[in-house]
Amino acid sequence: MPSLSNTSSVSLPKRIYTLAEIALASLLLAVLGSMLPGLVASAANWWLAAGFYVVMGVLVISFWPHGPLGWANRVTLGRGVLVAIVAGALAASAFTNAIWLWLAVAVIALLLDGVDGWIARRTKTHTTFGARFDMELDAVLILILCIGLLQSEHLGAWVLLIGGMRYLFIAASWPFAWLKAPLFESFRRKAVCVWQVVALLLALTPFTSPLAAGLLALSALASLSYSFGFDVWWLYQQHKHNAH
């Protein structure tokens, strides 16, 4: 898992530049929120969306050491605005009154996932921070979809394991430091991530029956459990090999 950059020596002008870009993107949140009254319909929706964005902005300012974000990270920040709106709609179950709009915004946020990486490769501006920023947004969006599924289909708290498993993995890495070792590139890991998103989106559509939604969510959880289990096993084998 990539680590975030150390910013203890970041100059004040660089922080101010980053802060200005974060503040500018917050205007995008305000504009889009006003254009999507079905999702951001109450003060509670606004507070949750703004709170999510503030936390994201503080983390970006804290860990980005290079001043201007660059176009790849700006696209990721734009994705963050959309994810904030998706998160905000969970308050007072606003998303259930505009489920298709909610899903559309979530899908756009997911489609932009490949755009920032493409820009980073084309402009040769790929960074560890950018990869981590992108990954964290994916993880949060999947967790938000799980919360939405829990609220709309009442499948039980087990569905939160789909979005929470990565955070359980991080928590487990505190007492077991060998879990922090870097993993190899894996098509399997990417395929499972894609299926998680597809399964959750399909489960959330109004056309999907509760039984089908449950089976889709269960398939996402099963594939994810296998993927995490394989990675944990591989990391443990590497740890044992290095210990000898």
TrEMBL record:
Pfam family, one: CDP-OH_P_transf
Gene3D superfamilies: 1.20.120.1760
Top-rank taxon, per record: Bacteria
Transmembrane segments: 16-40, 46-64, 76-93, 131-150, 156-179, 191-209, 215-236
InterPro entries recorded: CDP-OH_P_trans, CDP-OH_PTrfase_TM_dom, CDP_ALCOHOL_P_TRANSF_CS
Keywords (A to Z) from UniProt: Membrane, Transferase, Transmembrane, Transmembrane helix
Keyword presence, Transferase: yes
Key word Chloroplast present: no
Family statement drawn from the similarity comment of this UniProt entry: Belongs to the CDP-alcohol phosphatidyltransferase class-I family.
Protein name per the record: CDP-alcohol phosphatidyltransferase
